[in-house]
């Protein structure tokens, strides 16, 4: 049997060739102006693409049947998406708003959990003529429940129902247009454990049908749109559409009085601020904010806004792992090498990148300040009592991070 002997051969072959052409075109975006022309960051752009190529068909095909839903991890230590933040985990499940589902699991000890029902993805961001972010994003949060609102038994086991008849507890309503669950969990201390979750449709009857040629053609088209969209949209989409949170013209500083903090952000359970940074080898950047209540996270990202190597490197900061100076100020230091400051954020030798701030338990925006200083005179710009670490202590911190992150992902 050869090509042309099957009735769907031509359609499958054409769809595959179109996907390959789309993938080839997506790779050209590695050389876009927003990606610095240095070897590490050019290579990182292709890594960003290949990591997401690895999940394209999981999203487009393998987990797409809403009668047999699966929870899919968007981000892992070896897979990053634009806008993801270290110390978060991101999971999704495709659903159908006309069906009812049950999530079962056991609560971990992570400080924050948010399960959101996402509605339709409009062509443009509501109230604007800006295009929505690429699939599977850009959809509108409809309702959410936090970990604190989920009732569990004494051992942390729970059931959470999605759709179907209203329930007095542990229930999320859906609409006919509901299309997915978006599950985010955020961690503070290294000893925190993840929430274990699985999902099933209450009307599930199986086994599911195997993908027919038409379904495979559809999946190839969706996967192609996904990889081309992510290479096209990051980081420029955020620069243009995120209410000024991301502004490359405001280099090495958070745009003043600009945060993501509207009704949809409240349903997402957070507010955010963002900075684009650029550091020469002989420079360091000090980021300051007054210490405040709540749960905040700073996370470093590359040119495409994917999180940096959070498995091996100190590229994120949270309250439990950050030292506060005696004047009540949190000071973080972005630098290309380790200057011995406890609150060091590693640039992983990238010349340019992104720093994102998330506040998860309140909607109050911190006042974020920055100072660009000479690398070799860094300590002149920090308080005398700045917390420092030895090389041995840094190695122990790195190992603690490595073990904790592996535990979060079960790897």
Could you describe the 3D structure shown?
With 411 residues, the chain is α+β, with helices and mostly antiparallel strands. It is built from 6 helices and 17 strands. The strands form 4 sheets. A 5-stranded antiparallel sheet has the order 1-2-8-4-5. Strands 7-6-3-9 form a 4-stranded mixed sheet, with no helix packed on it. The chain has a 4-stranded antiparallel sheet with strand order 10-16-12-13. It starts with 8 loop residues before the first helix and ends with a helix. Mean pLDDT is 94; it is low at 264-269. The protein is globular, with a radius of gyration of 22 Å. It folds into 2 domains: 9-234, no CATH class; 237-409, Jelly Rolls (Sandwich), CATH 2.60.120.1600. This is DUF1214 domain-containing protein. It comes from Novosphingobium guangzhouense.
What labels would you give this structure?
single chain, 411 residues, alpha+beta, Jelly Rolls, 5-stranded antiparallel beta sheet, 4-stranded mixed beta sheet, 17 strands, 24% strand, DUF1214 domain-containing protein
Topology:
Layout: H1 9-28, H2 39-62, E1 72-73, E2 88-94, E3 101-106, E4 112-118, E5 141-146, E6 157-162, E7 171-172, E8 180-186, E9 196-201, H3 213-233, H4 236-241, H5 263-268, E10 271-278, E11 283-290, E12 296-301, E13 316-317, E14 329-335, E15 344-346, E16 352-359, E17 369-374, H6 391-409
Parallel strand pairs: 6-7, 14-15
Antiparallel strand pairs: 1-2, 2-8, 3-6, 3-9, 4-5, 4-8, 10-16, 11-14, 11-17, 12-13, 12-16
Helix pairs in contact: 1-3, 2-3
